[in-house]
Design a protein that fits this description.
about 60% helix, 2 strands, mainly alpha
Length: about 120
């Protein structure tokens, strides 16, 4: 059965962080963070909340109460809002701001085209 330690390890690796950098970010010793991942140590509720905020997942996901990383309410379905985040990656490969700019431009072109088609259908 998967536990919070495996979830923390997977999220750390997805975000391309070392044990040392993840520990520094959340304000604990490297050995403490490693203890969380091996489940030798149990993080406090404050730390669990901090991990959830940092990794952009729900506390329920970290505690293995759900396999859905975020609550539906917390997710934005607006691609423009989502792409405004600066720390995006594609399957673990970080996307530069320049690459995100190309993606945003491409999607904006599609949206403008669809909007024009919708307008033409309305009046044509």
């Amino acid at each position: 059965m998967i536990g919070y330690g495996e979830r923390l390890r997977a999220l750390r690796k997805e975000n391309q962080l070392t044990l040392e950098s993840a520990a520094r970010i959340v304000g604990v010793a490297k050995s403490t963070y490693a203890g969380y991942e091996t489940e030798f140590r149990k993080p406090s509720l404050d730390k669990i909340s901090l991990f959830a905020d940092f990794y952009h997942v729900s506390v329920d996901y970290l505690l293995c109460l759900t396999d859905q990383q975020s609550t539906e309410e917390g997710q934005s379905h607006n691609a423009k809002t989502f792409l405004s985040k600066g720390d995006l990656h594609w399957d673990g490969v970080p996307l530069s701001e320049e690459e995100l700019h190309y993606i945003r431009d491409f999607l904006e072109t599609i949206a403008e085209k669809k909007s024009k088609q919708k307008s033409d259908n309305k009046f044509g």
